Amino acid sequence: MALIEFPGEVPEAVAVGGAAYSMRWLVNGEIRTWSGEGMDVRSPILVGGQRHVLGQLPMVSAEAALEALAAAKAAWAHGRGPWPTMRTARRVGALEKFTDAMAAQREPVVRLLMWEIGKTRKDAETEFDRTVVYIRDTIEELKAFDRDGSRFKIEAGTLGQIRRSPLGVTLCMGPFNYPLNETFTTLIPALAMGNTVVAKLPRYGGMSTVPLFEAFRDAFPPGVVNIFQGDGATTIGPIMQSGDIDALAFIGSSRVANLLRRQHPHPNRMRCITGLEAKNPAIVLPDADLDVAIKECVSGALSFNGQRCTALKLLFVHESIAPVFTEKLAAAVSALKAGMPWTPGAQVTPLPEEGKPELLAKFVADAVAQGSRVLCGGEAEGTFFRPAVVYPVRPAARLYNEEQFGPIVPVTTFAADSEIDQFMQNSPYGQQVAIFGRDPKRMAGLIDAMANQVCRINLNTQCRRGPDTFPFTGRKDSAEGTLSVHDALRSFSIRTVVAAPTDAASKDLVQGIVTSRASNFLSTDYLF
Ligand code: G3H
């Protein structure tokens, strides 16, 4: 019996007009059609046994990528361009115009997310809606930053106005798993602070941004936002080597992040904001509420087929409860419904990355070779991989140390809490942990052991990024910089101070500038 029934034909209610989004790129305020090499956008959904081709995205040349960079550089104009010098009120107006136009494109974007990366309709809608809310919250926070910057401080005989200024030309590269949300949670704050942007779309999921090109073109001055698709080495190498990138926003692997940084001739001039790998463990203590722990571990490890940087990627279960825990866990994982992204209630869907089911099968085989058993799942068919529970995973297995980024739940046991401490100390990652238990003293001990090793400790709940007002970051190879609605605006800006002595002549001068409204920067305009 097939693991999943692939559609014989495309249902009308989820059809995407991929041709309308094909071969387009956005440069210097123009939506252009690329006439050179393109790449097929191959859906993980097999129609007639083949990946359904949705359309093509351009594979722009190095020259075209450098044209996008030149447009962003010209719009920045050494910080003198209309966008970086614009009063915040007008920048807010542009962001609001963009958001309204974006909201009107919800359905095409949601359908593309379903087809391109196999995200369920519910999750695709959540990704879209959450991103719109994030932008609206960013606008409100930007106004608050502006209000703070409108004040003067007087300290030790010096008066000063301190405002946050943009950094310059920003390169944004988001990931395939949240192609919209994780790209926009850097791109939008970068724009909001007055930076200009070049964005390269992710290898999978990139077409879902194309329906928003008109909104970008119509809301922002030419050159402020430039977006293309292309081979990373061909396009990003020359952009980095130019030395013209002032800020890098990259969500992906630490290997590529390091490569990009090394290509910049003056890496010290480039601020890096990154979201990288993670191997977030769950720790299930003997007194944990097992129903809560199972529910949170299943969802934490397997929502969007485990393709989340925040996913639980290794479960440490106390040896005294491991038999009962693993039995319940395998039952819950086996009960997950497989289907197409639009199938009501589907929780397991096809995987977008080429070769991913085979890679996951290798992870499982390696663990089995090290003495693990597969308690459920693990079968691969086409682009589909039935979620596997693998137990007990030994420290020598790849699944113990490497990020699987897919639907495998590795379970290991521990006797003493110090073993968890040891795991985190040895791990190259430091994003989050989830602890399940009830004893305040024991939980407190683990919190204190983890507090300086990760950046978020979740109690009786799975690891996650939200709410988006909370700081999202990591240590070691997991992240650089902090993202939240508030922190992202800080990350993409730097404080600039206008300072003067407090003598009468200086006060008169500052007063004259402010009351004449001659400066966009030195201003007490108040934005509500
Ligand atoms: O892939 C990483 C995402 O930022 C995770 O976000 O925890 O809200 O799914 P999430």
Descriptors:
single chain, 528 residues, alpha/beta, seven-stranded mixed beta sheet, six-stranded mixed beta sheet, 17 helices, 24 strands, 22% strand, binds glyceraldehyde-3-phosphate
What do these coordinates show?
The chain is of the alpha/beta class. It is 38% helix and 22% strand. The chain is built from 17 helices and 24 strands. The model has no long low-confidence stretch (mean pLDDT 97). The protein binds glyceraldehyde-3-phosphate (G3H).
Layout of strands and helices, then pairs:
Elements (H helix, E strand, L loop, with lengths): L23 E4 L2 E4 L4 E10 L2 E9 L3 H15 L5 H4 L2 H16 L2 H12 L3 H29 L3 E3 L2 E9 L2 E5 L7 H12 L3 E5 L12 H7 L5 E4 L3 H10 L5 E5 L2 H10 L7 E5 L4 E5 L5 H13 L9 E7 L3 H13 L21 H14 L3 E4 L3 E2 L2 E2 L2 E4 L6 H4 L6 E7 L3 H9 L2 E2 L1 E5 L3 H11 L5 E4 L15 E2 L2 E2 L4 H7 L1 E9 L2 H13 L12
Parallel strand pairs: 7-8, 7-10, 8-9, 10-11, 12-13, 12-20, 13-18, 17-18, 20-21
Antiparallel strand pairs: 1-2, 3-4, 5-6, 6-24, 11-23, 14-17, 15-16, 19-22
Helix pairs in contact: 1-8, 3-5, 3-7, 4-5, 5-6, 6-16, 10-11
Give the termini separation.
62 Å
Number of E strands: 24
- Bin the strand percentage: 15-25%
* Rg measurement, Å: 25 Å
Q: How would you describe the shape? A: globular
**What do the pLDDT scores average to?**
97
Taking the sheet with the most strands, its summary is:
7 strands, mixed
Structural class: alpha/beta
Bound molecules: glyceraldehyde-3-phosphate
Tally of separate helices: 17
Q: Which regions contain 5 or more consecutive residues with pLDDT less than 50?
A: none
Percent helix range: 25-40%
